[in-house]
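Hi U.,

Before I forget, here's the chain from the pilot set. I'm dumping it here mostly so it's searchable later in email.
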Amino acid sequence: MKIFVLLAITAVVFGLASAFKPPAVRYDDFKVYKVHVKDEQQLAEFKKLANNLPVRFLNDISGPGRSYDLTIDPANQMALEDQMQYFEFNYERTIDDLQEVLEQSMPANVESSNATMTWTKYHQLADIYDWLDNLAIANMFMVTPFIIGKSYEGRPIKAVRISTCPGNKAIFIESNIHAIEWISSATTTCFINNLLKAETKEMKRLLKSYDWIYVPVLNPDGLEYTHNVERLWRKNRKPTRFSNSSGICYGTDLNRNFDYMWGGAGYNIDVPCDHWYGGAAPDSEPEVVALERFVNSFPKNYIRMYLAFHSYGNLVLLPYGHTTEEFPPNYNQMMRIANAFAAGAKVKYGTQFKSGASGLLNYPVSGSAKDWAYGVKKVPFTATIELRDDGSKYGFFLPVSQIVEVCAEVTDGIVEMLKQARIEGLFK
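Structure:
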């Protein structure tokens, strides 16, 4: 009888937990706009748009002379357009129905499929981790698995090291630090899969000549949240503070939380409920601490290249992000290597990548992973690679039909990047 009562209570508890699971957010008929901000006066008015309307900015706001993406619900669309016309913004509507675009990339069943990893869909965390575990089993003599730490909600953060020859120097790859950027882990898993299969002469050379350290999903809580609740989520899921006006604020932008020039620059990095909040202090997030400890576990000078994959923009962003006036001592060398990536990535599909310091080319940001790897760990080449597209059509919401193409152009880019890095003596 006691067992029966216990089972009944357990069933009720699980039923209530399921009942209170937040429904997935939908964006039916939400419009996405690209807005050009020409001067400081327009910039001030642009920032005020969110004070009066339920506008959601999709990228960081830095200075004038740039274009920014935002989305709004259909009920407020006309009010937004009236405001933009009143302040004489130059704008265009890039997406008419955001939900329709999202459904081009969402799996039909949001639960993990446990299917074989493919690159014709965006996978959830369980699928990516199953694939990573199977890589280690199938290639046990060259793939070493790691659990580098746990997320705030207790999920493991998994990694592997691929090594075929003793004495090789290493290339470090991380992706999906921002939950919304599904194409980042889709691209890196595809690249690592191709690397281990190594069918071409170039890929065999990459497999033989370098060690590869790979963290596919640095933000597992955020990735799961984007698949099940809120596709536009960016941060991790750690509560940040209680505010009388807004309740509990969740999440820190992990790529603003590393302990290098933390808090020095960036839009709304000190606003806990904002998408770009950098945390209460550097290294306040368990995911960031896990990555730093993992990098610290390797010998000095072993990691010679650090590549952080993000979207979107078609950019190869170099240190530094916190300034537009200070540059790394070997900046010219880094530019040659970055430009080699851009040249390689252009060949198959004509995709144009721009290279340069992130503070100049993109927007000011402090506490990023690539700047920490360069400034603290002295890795001689670090870059954030912003994948397709340039924001003119899909932005964060790249259709699954483009995953294979993005993987191919990134693979070609890495091949050429490493050729140039060899010439520059980076791996000596």
